[in-house]
Amino acid sequence: MNDQNGDKVNIAGSLRNTLMISLIGGALVLAVILYLVVRTYAAQIAQSTQDRILSASVTSILDAAAIRNEALSVELPYSAFSILSTQADDRFFYAIHQDGRFLSGYEHMVFTETPNGQMKFYAGRYDGSDLRIATGSRRLVGANGQTTLTVSVAQGQQSLAGVLNRISRNAGLLGFGFFALMTLLSLWLTYATIAPLTRLAASVQRRGPEDLRPVAAPVPAEMAPLVGSLNSFMRRLAHSLDQSEEFIAEAAHRVRTPLATVRSYAETTLQRVDKLENRQALRAMVRAIDESSRAAGQLLDHAMITFRADHLRRSKLDLAEVTGDLIRAMRPLADMKDVDLDLSATQQVWIEGDAILLQNALRNLVDNALKYAPAESVIQIIVSDDPANIRVQDSGPGFPQDEIPDLSTRFTRGSNAAETIGSGLGLTIAQDVAVAHGGTLILTNRKEGGACATLSF
Amino acid sequence: MRNIILLIFLAAANLVQAQDWEDRKLFGPSNAQQVLRVLSSTDVVYLDTVLSDFVRTVDGAQIEYLVTGTADINDIIRKDPDAYDVVISSAMDLQVKLTNDGFAKPLRTIERPDWMQWRQSLFGFSAEPAAIVVNTAAFKDLGLPRTRQELISLFRAEPDLFRDKIATYDIRRSGLGYFFATQDARASETFWRFTEVIGNLGTRLYCCSGEMITAVAKGDVLVAYNVLGSYAATQALADPRIQVIVPEDFATTMMRTIFVTRNTSRPKLAESFVAHLLEAAESREPVDRLQLPPLESEAGRELQKVVPLEPSLMIYLDRLSRKAFTLEWESAIIQ
Ligand SMILES: Nc1ncnc2c1ncn2[C@@H]1O[C@H](COP(=O)(O)OP(=O)(O)OP(=O)(O)O)[C@@H](O)[C@H]1O
Ligand SMILES: [Mg+2]
Q1: Is the ipTM of this complex over 0.90?
Q2: Record's GO cellular component, any one (chain B) (predicted)?
Q3: Does pTM surpass 0.90?
């Protein structure tokens, strides 16, 4: 049998892997996006909070400015600085300019022009600290014309960085939690999706070769077409298998019966015909009918064997018993040729196999021995164990030595077979049966003369 | 040639020495491997035991303790920040600004609550209220006022007794006086009213706590307002002519603060010195204690109203603010 090749399935990809990779991959991408969005958003909020505080500080200083006695007076409100206190004790700097001229605060701060009433925010760096700077200005009108006051307040970002770190950590945890949850969900989802497929495959795999019942267990809608096709395929297969077996038996019967009728007519006619040429023609006719009948029988047997070998139904058998049954059935045939069938089966020999096939193989071997060995001889049939085997020996001329390798080929007859009726399928059948049971057919010639055919399992 | 170089060298050395310190004292062995240069506005007497203790516990360490005024300290550090290892000053605002400007080094091993430290670099170690010092004899019959309100009532009741007999800091000349005044103004509305009242009575303005205390003791003035309590208390122990009152409505209380300079060449020694000083300041044992009023527990702090170490203190250093505040103060006190 070539089951090995038949079971080989062409595999491209895996549903489970595809599903799992796309689900988990998707979860990962989503988790990263979630992390980035939360972080960016939080960072913006944190920055805008700092900006608002800086802006409040700048505004409160600007608002404190007044022109008194034609001179600019600014008394910085305490709150302008106190709101700048942070958890991380960030340092801060400030500068007050009047019309671009430095007035008070930190002189190293660069003057930045800002339109009246607007607030500018920008980043800066001083003495190893990252700074966020807010600048605003206000126009004051006095008796001597107008003047513009510009206030810049800069604050370190250490506290903000701390907040951002905390947020990042939380966002990271959130992303990771989401990912872990999605991964679990993906695993479950993949399992749930694949499970019906796995169940179906397992249930089909568990069946014996002859179990061709339709799949009855419920399956998901998407699998319905596949299971439907499978069921109808199996139904057709079962149907055609049943039909084949019946057909073979029927065919043998149908061919043999009319041939037997024709043969009996030909023989009757032979009795009545005297003319030599007519008698010869009739004899040739009878022989041709015999050949056809034999060929038809052997062909159908061979078909039957091929069929049964494909669906081998094994059962525990005693080889000695199987052989005994067959010899008993063949004894009348042997008696007609005065041939003694000598069965030697001293012990039970158990094998797993199909009795019908084994008897068929054995019948062909005994048949050959009867056909090619002389009358009044003895045919030995020996059943023995380790390994289980049946030997059929005769004392005839033996196989034509140089043709032995070819004799088991289909329709091949030996050079010694010219006189006998046959189709050249007997040894083929025996060999096919042996191979179906995992054994061999060995043909040898005996030293003391005669053929020896061994079915070994 | 060599002589000239030597001469220049000596001149340069002289220049460095040219700084005249109010006081200069060495602690520890003269052959020490490491010398810790401490720049301070606090008189040696107050820290004597702590400094001696420190050089005794640490092998091979010497402390050079240099005393000068708070404004001076600020200038010196800004000009020559690497020449000193530790800075102690009673001017909280200046100290905060020095720290904000990056002159202080964060000390990671020292843990103190928020209000006692700033940027993990500047640490407070004493709580010293602004007190009222009165002449004992003059107040014998009047009874001691406990709050500013009572003092105002007293002034109103006896204007002739107190005319030209009230002293306070001239905030234009004294950093500490300016600091106390601004904190008072922030803490209570009473301050301006009080200032106007004493302005009306003709107040005498002084540069320092010591002079005010002496004046009260002599009877030149009868009341001195906003005198550094720790100094006054020390004086009052030895001089029965004066009495110290810490007002009960609120007492502006400043902290002396300490920091290690950013580029000190002896960071470990400096840090352990700060730790030692802070521990001594908080010690319950009178023997180990600083000769300064310690920072009290939370409950005590509530009453004392210690000015917390915050960057907002810098506001009073602003030129414009100072100008505006001084103008207002002048118009109230000089009439
Ligand atoms: N016992 C035997 N002694 C001598 N020759 C044999 C023997 N058995 C088989 N042969 C040779 O082997 C050939 C093939 O045998 P096989 O049984 O396959 O064909 P067949 O006997 O000719 O025809 P059939 O299909 O009717 O059996 C025979 O034609 C014969 O030449
Ligand atoms: Mg045959």
Answers
A1: no
A2: outer membrane-bounded periplasmic space
A3: no
